[in-house]
Specification:
By secondary structure, the chain is mostly beta strands. It folds into three domains: 147 residues, no CATH class; 117 residues, Lipocalin (Beta Barrel), CATH 2.40.128; 86 residues, Thrombin, subunit H, CATH 2.40.10.480. 0% of the residues lie in helices and 49% in strands. It has no helices and 38 strands. The strands form ten sheets. Strands 3-38-37-36 form a four-stranded antiparallel β-sheet, with no helix packed on it. A four-stranded antiparallel β-sheet has the order 4-5-6-7, with no helix packed on it. A four-stranded antiparallel β-sheet has the order 8-9-10-11, with no helix packed on it. Strand 30 and strand 31 form a beta hairpin. InterPro entries: Quino_amine_DH_bsu (IPR011044), WD40/YVTN_repeat-like_dom_sf (IPR015943).
């Protein structure tokens, strides 16, 4: 056991027979319609019990709440009142209070959705790979209540607050438009540029002009805030812009797309600064820290989100945040189980690691944090589940499905199975 100063515990797993009485699921297992042959059976391990407490520890149970009438879908939680299931030929909206189907939108390859006021914007996932002239809309905005179409776009769109950026990836002309997400009405167009990037933190848009001038625009109106002639890194191929907390970086790429170097400029006065502490991107990593990444992705810096000061770094960039700490990932087993595998859990404050969750699979992510892990019992077609909290990994037991992905929605999990079903699991709590 690794016990941390603030009381967080990670308890090593023990072997749990698949037929242990208190783990036997209620109801028959559904037949597995899975065509691939699995050469090896993964070991089934026990889930964690919890930390020492004065009274009985809670033990969470999981049961099947509903099987959604959908085929081979992947679920995404849009917000507390809406869950989307993306099937092969349509996107289906569900009310998580009762799991009633609200509406559906026909169309292939929807993969993501964002709620904006009374709209839901649906995004396609593979339109870039389709032949020219045969591409359906990249995005569709529908009424949240009825699913009726409000507007659509045959260009890639991204939402930054209440501004929608519209463009064609790889378009030589780089026609970039800024629109109102409510109506898709045009607000302004980006002048001819080498490269550009939105800066949502400052409601800005940065671009490099064809002659190499750095320009800051107001993201909403396009009004020019500042221009500056800055030194550009030597590039054999192209330049790219990125924005960190307090700086804007200009990155040079060489032949073959290899990263050469980045020059950073302080946002406050556009003077050159050292690249130390300038990250390509950041996100919540759990335990009160953020993960910050360099361009090459080979190193993760754990930083204080309030100050940007690095607490420590992790040389292996294959990590993802969780309420317990940074999960270091590996990949074991057959390709049929392509879910990332846990190698260890790192305490971001002390640097200590625990292998108590080694071998478990990352099954469910919510707001960028891993919250649900899985272990498979293939002969019995069971998936053992564990829920990660900020204090412990909680034993949920087994369900009679082989799950391939789960999306947390409050105290439920919306899961896609390897048999092609979409099931809703309820997480309950009882005291032992």
């Amino acid at each position: 056991m690794v016990r941390e100063p603030d009381g967080v515990s990670i308890i090593d797993l023990g072997v749990l027979p698949a037929d242990e009485p208190d783990e036997e699921p209620t109801g028959p297992a559904k037949p597995l319609r899975w065509g691939r042959r699995v050469a090896a059976v993964l070991a089934v391990a026990a889930v964690l019990t919890g930390v020492t407490a004065a009274g009985p520890l809670p033990r969470h149970q999981v049961s099947t709440l509903a099987v959604l009438p959908s085929a081979t879908g992947v679920a995404r939680v849009v917000d507390a009142g809406l869950v989307m299931v993306f099937e092969n030929r349509r996107a289906v909206a569900y009310d998580p209070d009762g799991w009633r189907e609200l509406w559906s939108v026909p169309g292939p390859a929807f993969a993501h959705a964002i709620a904006f006021e009374d709209l839901v914007v649906l995004f396609r996932g593979d339109a870039m790979n389709e032949p020219t002239g045969e591409k359906p809309d990249w995005a569709q905005a529908v009424d949240r209540t009825t699913g009726q179409l409000r507007w659509s776009s045959d260009r890639q769109v991204e939402l930054y607050g209440d501004v929608m950026v519209s463009y064609l990836p790889g378009d030589v002309a780089q026609v970039v438009e800024f629109r109102d997400p409510r109506t898709a009405e045009l607000r302004w167009r980006l002048p001819d540029s080498q490269t550009w990037t939105p800066d949502e933190r400052r409601s800005a848009l940065w671009r490099l002009t064809p002659d190499g001038t750095l320009v800051e625009h107001d993201l909403h109106t396009g009004a020019v805030r500042r221009t500056a002639r800055v030194q550009l890194p030597e590039s054999e191929r192209s330049l790219n812009l990125t924005v960190s907390r307090e700086a804007v970086g200009i990155t040079a790429f060489g032949d073959g797309g290899w990263l050469r170097n980045t020059l950073w400029y302080r946002v406050a006065d556009l003077t050159g600064i050292s690249g130390a502490g300038q990250w390509a991107w950041e996100h919540d990593c759990g335990r009160g820290l953020s993960c910050a990444y360099t361009f090459d992705g080979g190193q993760v810096f754990l930083i204080d989100p309030a100050t940007g000061v690095a607490v420590r770094s992790v040389l292996d960039g294959g990590g993802v945040g969780s309420p317990l700490g940074l999960i270091l990932l590996g990949q074991d087993g057959e390709a049929d189980f392509s879910l990332p595998t846990v190698r260890a859990v790192l305490d971001p404050w002390t640097g200590d690691s625990s292998a108590g969750l080694k071998g478990w699979r990352v099954l469910g992510v919510d707001e960028g944090l891993v919250r649900v892990l899985a272990h498979y019992d293939l002969p019995h077609k069971l998936t053992y589940l564990a829920e990660l909290t900020d204090r412990e990994a909680v034993r949920l037991g087994a369900v009679p499905h082989l799950l391939r992905e789960c999306t947390p929605a409050g105290r439920t999990l919306v899961c896609a199975t390897m048999a092609g079903d979409t099931v809703v699991l309820r997480i309950g709590e009882e005291h032992r």
